[in-house]
Amino acid sequence: MVHIYNMSAGINQTPTWGVTTSGQPFNDLDTVGATNLNKISKVVIGHGEVIDSITITYDRNDGLAPLVQSHGGTGGNITTIELDSNEVIVGVSGRYGFVSSIYGRSSIQSLEFALLNQATGEMRIEGPFAPGSGTPFSVIDTVVAVAGYVSTSGTHYIQALSFFTTHTPVV
């Protein structure tokens, strides 16, 4: 089950983009724990025709080793986004919808990340990953965790995503 976090907890959840009526849900905020979140230090995207997988490395406040959460299949090209100690993800955009070559199922078709270096004010964009022509979505806010759904039959891929942010989400 994907929980909804609210302003009183200091963390908000964006809408979920994609299909949520099937597949296996995941929620990294529940796994890492809101009080242990420090920042995202690495994002690994598996991508080809769609987003096959997403792996996030979370640095923690409790001094323990970073926690790595991986979701999806093993297909596609792998791209690693390393965030330096001053960088945070301040925006994510993408596309979702049905793709005929994956049995007409819905998936996250593309992703792109905006990173801000808080020390220098410099921005950089990573992506887009996968070609995507479906319905666009975006969030402009500091992203601290992800949730979503992974397909459970055939080739595994990301079929829906939601993002946890530290401010009121802009969608």
UniProtKB/TrEMBL annotation:
Coiled-coil regions listed: none
Domain of life: Eukaryota
InterPro entries membership: Jacalin-like_lectin_dom, Jacalin-like_lectin_dom_sf
Domain Jacalin-type lectin: 11-167
Protein's name in the database: Jacalin-type lectin domain-containing protein
